[in-house]
Amino acid sequence: MKDEDYKSIALICKTPKECNKLKKRLEKNGQFEIDIINDKNDTYKAGVVIVPSYLAKGLEFDVVFIVNLDEKYEESEMDLKLLYVAMTRTHHLLYP
């Protein structure tokens, strides 16, 4: 994605716990270091980040990957809203 000139890429997980788990897996595999947007640093400039779905509202990215490791979105009203927010954060590409 970076080679295709996309400047902002988000890996959106359901919860902060899932975000931390994904970060550890990516770093363990030697992929690259990646930041997590959390309650303390809810600003975002560019690059690749991991973000929980409840903090993604209001942010926009060129590319969005919706990542589920262990936690799944259920058919509850809250989960459907979180999934909707995650899916509508992209300008160009969405990978559910």
TrEMBL record:
Domain spans labelled UvrD-like helicase C-terminal: 48-95
Example of a GO MF term: helicase activity
Pfam name, any one: UvrD_C_2
Residues passing through the membrane, by range: none
Entry annotated with the keyword ATP-binding: yes
Keyword annotations from UniProtKB, A to Z: ATP-binding, Helicase, Hydrolase, Nucleotide-binding
Protein's recorded name: UvrD-like helicase C-terminal domain-containing protein
Organism whose genome encodes this protein: Selenihalanaerobacter shriftii
